[in-house]
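REQUEST ID: PR-0412
SUBMITTED BY: lab tech R.K.
PRIORITY: routine
TASK: structure prediction, single protein chain
INPUT:
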Amino acid sequence: MNLIGKVFSKRYEVKRRIGAGGMSIVYQAVDILLDRSVAVKILRDQYCDDEQNIRFFQNEARSIAALSHPNIVKIFDIGKEDQHYFIVMEYLEGKTLKEIIQEGAPMDPVEAINLVRGILRALEHSHKKGIIHRDIKPHNIMLDKDHKVKVTDFGIARNAGASTVTYSGQMVGSVYYISPEQAKGERTSSATDIYSTGAMLYEMLTGKVPFTGDNPVSIALSHVEKEAKPMSELNKKIPECLEEIVETAMRKNPKERYPSAMEMARALSKAKMLIESGKAKTRGKRSLRSRKMTLVSIAVIIAVLLPISYILVDKYSPVAVPDVVGIPISEAESLLAEAGFSYEVDRTVVTTDFDVDIVMNQDPRAQQEVRTSRTILLTISEEPARFDVPHVIGLEERRAMIAIENARLKPVVVHDYSTDENTIPGSVISQEPLAGVSLYEDSEVVLTVSMGLQPGLVKIQDLKGKTFAEAEAYFQLHGLKLGEISYQNSPLYFLGIVMQQSVSADTEVEAGSVVDLVISRGPGIQVQEKEISFKLPGMKESLVHVVVSDISGTHEEYRATHMGGEPLRISINHWGEGNANVYQDNVLIMTVNLP
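STATUS: complete
OUTPUT:
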């Protein structure tokens, strides 16, 4: 289907095709009213007669609409135009994770960790809202031009607890990353997305998917029955701690995986610290001869040292260091003290991946046997900075949102009627919390924006010459409904200016009435010239001046003295529709309509 140039919902003009999936095609479009690029996802024609396909498609919009997170693509609109079902989303300039893997896998471990943590933050938010993605794969992960992760395509997402995972006899989700429970048609959960994330991380670090086969069924069965080849056999540089994380995420039994996306993110944070500190180890292969020599060496050492060990004082015997990573410092102190160790806080790290005063790292590592005289060095999480909520009551919605965002907080907008007739529609009438409260970064601030006064009998104003935003605010204030919006080229009005209205000015209508508008698409107002011809009354000399009122405002176009009875031909400039008033000694003598 060729939809280039088509306008959806009277505002989204399709410009070019940018991608396609099994059920839909994605186009870049322009939001004419807001003058911004958007992505329009359109259900393929062959699926528009199938209710189940339509339900899958519309489910994506509902799923994303229920979510609000910086790592999840935003949705702006949903609708149907003719036979086309469509979703309007934010337009992302960048690449899919699949493209990045194809260009540069195996990826650097730290880079892979940073990307996957962004994905896990999105999943943690989704899971808390009760939504399981069920199709996590590199194709559905976008990295924008700032390299920020965006999770997309919630088309087969379900509320937690949904059990059916088949569709038209085929498995839902990409078979290369599908979880065992999906492949078997069992109940899905948050662990399903964790498995797929682990499979995706496997590919990022090795350049290979965990399982391949001759057909989708054989690949799906491999996820159920087989263990993936150890990553270290494909890439010897993979840190052991990172390999263990992938293995845990890809356990066949969902209960043996990480209990939440955040727990997996925390494990990755620990691995990142080990890698960056140079303490991460890799799994190396040793020959049989080497292993035999090691066993012989151990036997010799035991034989030599065993007699000596009996004369050592107990307090000098090595003791296994307790594992205190991931627990509060107070609990860590008790555990270390019970084992006979003292500790020092080596450093603190500001982080949002851990609660405050949680042990993020320890040296020596857990289970390493050292003397109790050794001081255990701990890395502790520090509370992130707090940010004061600004005062935004009275500000226009967009300005208020910008102020909240500049304070490194997240605005959440709700709309309600105002009881004050002096309140400007579209302005903030309340905020929660109030100004001055300190919050963590990205905490929500709820803004209530005025919809105008409670509806009543409305006398329609002349909206011609006003911007669409001004007309929309007028409708909100007086409880009117915006009806059909159409666009026409015009040399008399700038882009986005109201040209016509379906209800004449000064007409009284009931609240809730629908008013259609015609909006200009330009090219815009051009100066026009008009000649006014008349004979000046009287016989004496008098001052003549002409005042023009048009779309550009009110402006004087002529001022001079003339003798009465003199025939005049005065040329004036005007912009769009309006009128010209002719005055003689400041007395109105005629009015000329423009153009």
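NOTES: The mean pLDDT is 83.
REVIEWED BY: pending
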